[in-house]
Amino acid sequence: MVETFFARMNSHVFRPFRCGVHENPHHASAGLGSQTRGGHRMDVLVVEDEPLVREVVTHMLREAGFRIAEAATADAALALAEGAAAANGPPPVVVTGLHLGSGPDGLALGREVLRRWPEVGMVYITCHPEALDGRLLGPREHYIVKPIAPETLLHAVRRLMPAWAPGWTPSWAGLGHAVAVALGAAVTPRGP
């Protein structure tokens, strides 16, 4: 079943999500822990109570080269962010659903994350943008509406990713070399 959803990722609009359909929160784990290896810093913390949505968002971001940690609740996400902040610094970007089952919602999580670490970027995912309740988003916040197009998610995350984030290369990083090659001014390395 998951393969079917991942197969759809090549289309322009990814549509596996149905708003208002939630799995039993008692079956979802409270927190899944960091998915990074060897204690390396995470690039993005994904927070979503629906396991399939969380898995798909995580897959999209991993395919783009981001190091991901996952959580199913706001409380688990804060615990992961605190641990990361103590070790290597907070995650540069948090992607969260607005409705996270019982407990604090995505907006409450965003307020707390930005209170503790104002440099962190927040991406809110929702089926219902009216759930933002007229709230004005700050410069480090962005929201996207389900169904999620992979390029929309990646654009939002990259827009909020600070240039200092380790392991992140801006899309224009090779531009200077490309221009030099186009102008015929590039120096090509010679082999032995």
UniProtKB/TrEMBL annotation:
<dbReference type="GO" id="GO:0000160">
    <property type="term" value="P:phosphorelay signal transduction system"/>
</dbReference>
<dbReference type="InterPro" id="IPR011006">
    <property type="entry name" value="CheY-like_superfamily"/>
</dbReference>
<dbReference type="InterPro" id="IPR001789">
    <property type="entry name" value="Sig_transdc_resp-reg_receiver"/>
</dbReference>
<feature type="domain" description="Response regulatory">
    <location>
        <begin position="43"/>
        <end position="161"/>
    </location>
</feature>
<dbReference type="Pfam" id="PF00072">
    <property type="entry name" value="Response_reg"/>
</dbReference>
<keyword id="KW-0597">Phosphoprotein</keyword>
<dbReference type="InterPro" id="IPR050595">
    <property type="entry name" value="Bact_response_regulator"/>
</dbReference>
<protein>
    <submittedName>
        <fullName>Response regulator</fullName>
    </submittedName>
</protein>
